[in-house]
Amino acid sequence: MIDDRSALAKRFIDEYWSYYLQIENDVIDTFSYVEPDIRNFSTFSRKYKDLLSAIGSEVDVVGKSIAELVDTNDKKLADAHIAHWGFVVERFFPRISSAAVSMRGNIQLVPWKNWSNEIAKDKNKHTIYRLQSASSNPEWWKAYNKTKHRRRSLANPEDSNYERANLKNVISGLAGLFTLETILAEVIGRGSLPEKPQSKLFKLSDTE
Asked: What is the gyration radius of the CA atoms in the chain, in angstroms?
C-alpha cells in the first residue's frame, strides 16, 4: 500500500504535523486572553473565526490524505466530501467516534462523537456517501461550515453564525484534527516516524 514509508514519514512531519503544531501554538497564544475553561467556552471572536477556518480546512486535508492511503483504488477521494473520506477513515479506525482526547486542565473531549458514515445508492442507483441514521457531523465542523459560508447577513442581521466561532468549537475542532493526525501516523506506521515534537495540549486516550 505504501512504497516508501521513510519518505512518507518525513513528508508527514514536514507538511502535516508541523502545520498542526503551528495551529496549536496559535490557539495556545489566545489563552493569554481567554482562559481555556468551560466557563469561557461560549466566548467568540474574530481570531477564533480565523482559527476555526484553518482547523476545518486542515481537517479536510488530513482526512482525505488518510483515505487516499488506506484506499488507493478510489480515485475520487481527492475531491471527496466529509462523508466519503469519513467512511474510508472509519473502516481503518472504527473507534474514531468514541476516541477520547484529554486536554490539560482536566478537560475531556470526544471530538468525533456520534459521527458515522455509510455507503448507499440514490434513487438513480448512483453510489453516494452519507451520514448514518441518528448520526451527525460534529458541532465544531458545522460551525466551521456555517461561519465560512454565512458568518453574517446584511439583509437579515439576526441571522448570524459568528457566535459559533467560539472557544469550545476551536478547542474541539483542534482535538478533532489532532485525532486525525494521530490516525495518519498509524497509517504510515509509528516505527517509520522519526522523533517528533509532541502536542502541548492533547493526548489521545483511546490509543495510548
From this structure: 18
- Whole-angstrom distance, CA of residue 126 vs CA of residue 94: 25
Grid coordinates of 132: 448514518
What tens digit of pLDDT does each residue of 111-145 get? 999 999 999 999 999 999 999 999 999 999 999 99
Taking the CA atoms of 77, 139, 113 and 32 in sequence, report the sign of the dihedral they define. positive
Cell 471527496, residue located: 80
Three cell numbers, residue 168: 469550545
Q: Is 47 exposed, middle or buried (0-12, 13-18, 19+ CB in 10 A)?
A: middle
Give the three-class secondary structure for 147.
helix
Residue 153 predicted with pLDDT over 50: no
- What is the pTM for the complete model shown? 0.91
